[in-house]
Amino acid sequence: MKGLRNFIKSFVDLIYPPACPGCRKPLPRVAVDDTICLSCWSRITVNRPPFCHACGRRLTRGDINKNMCLRCARVPKAFDRAFSACVYDGVIKTLIHEFKYKDKQYLGKPLSKLLIDFIKRYDLPVGYIDYLVPVPLHRAKLREREFNQAEILCREVGSTIGKPTLENNLFRCRATDTQAAREPRQRLLNVRGSFAVKEKRSVTGRNLLLIDDVLTTGATASEAAQALKDAGANIIFVLALAS
After folding, report:
1. Strand partners, 131
2. Short-list 201, 184, 97, CA closest to 149
3. Fewest C-beta in 10 Å: which of 99, 115, 182, 225?
């Protein structure tokens, strides 16, 4: 059966050669995980320090002494620290869109490498983490998309750093509108009270690492962290693929 699937895939690839999801050009023989061309991979902008403690973006000169960007300083967050591996523009923005909305779940593996490399490069304190927690989708959106991109990233990162993923405990108790076109304050109101925890004992006194694909204002991650802290969680870090 596996041999037949491989034969069919080879036949399809012969007629329709696989293309890089970043630039749509045919994949060369050498590619990252046989999915992303090296040209696109090299054009991903990696986040560099100093980082804003809240959203994980690179701080500007005027904010360096505050350890927090002006936007985040205005609105306190429930999580203790956030990190983001990449700058949300160009190639990474395209790849995340393909990953989330074009059902290209296989991109979870190469994209998770960006998170793993970031953890190693800046020696993030993952040794103190008890569980990785994916930011969940509402059940209606999960039915529509059929997978949660944060869960895929969580599993890949967790298996590499040797930490378990706590799935299906944190959940969205109500559906929310998309955050993309909203102002920062509207984002906070949109997600307020939208998360809950099923089994509090699993998170009480635990240090958690929330994983998501994109962190913009931090409103969604903050609301998720608040639900976990209300359930008794201790330290909560956030790690996003891009911001």
Report:
1. 208
2. 97
3. 182
Give the pTM: 0.87
H/E run at residue 36: strand 36-37
Token pair recorded at residue 122: 């800046």
Rounded to 5°, angle at Cα 240 from 50 and 104: 140
Contact residues for 126 (Cβ-Cβ < 8 A; gap 6+): 119, 161, 163, 209
Domains delineated in the chain:
1-43 (no CATH), 46-242 (3.40.50)
Q: Is 67 left (phi over 0), alpha (psi -120 to 50) or beta?
A: left
Exposed, middle or buried, 82 (CB in 10 Å: 0-12/13-18/19+)? buried
Beta-strand ranges (E) seen in 95-169 are 131-134
d(CA 159, CA 177): 32
Residue 97, classed as helix, strand or coil, is helix
Give the whole-angstrom CA distance, residue 188 versus residue 154.
24
List the single range of 68-77, 93-102, 194-203 with lowest mean pLDDT. Answer: 68-77
Mean pLDDT of 45-67: 82
Locate 172 and state its tokens.
Answer: 């969205």
Note whether 216 and 243 are within 8 A (CB). Answer: yes
Secondary element (H or E) of residue 81: strand 81-86
Comparing 26-35, 63-72, 127-136, 213-222, the range with the smallest average pLDDT is 63-72
- SS3 for 113? helix
Highest mean pLDDT among 8-17, 64-73, 211-220: 211-220
Residue 160: count of CB within 10 angstroms of its CB: 15
